[in-house]
Give the backbone structure.
Amino acid sequence: MAQTNINILMDEELKKNFDEICTELGLNMTTAFNVFARAVVRKHGIPFEVALNDDYFYSESNKARLRKSITSLKGCKGINQELTENNGK
């Protein structure tokens, strides 16, 4: 299959961070972009939600989890857990 070049502009810091994560995953950026492109073609759209509200707290999955937790607490089936910080890791 014939190959073609694609040039994109990206913030330097974003590129650095993206490259580091790709490397940790055992990928290079070309492979990562190809994975993304194949997923777009397969789904006929972006393979993740693109929204103006990027606050995870209000995502449907988190709201469902919160409703389940509230129901559990009302049924006296709660579990005490401590909040820990992961410092972005």
Summary: The radius of gyration is 20 Å. The helical segments are 12-24, 29-43, 60-74. Residues 12-43 form one domain. The CA atoms of residues 17 and 88 lie 13 Å apart.
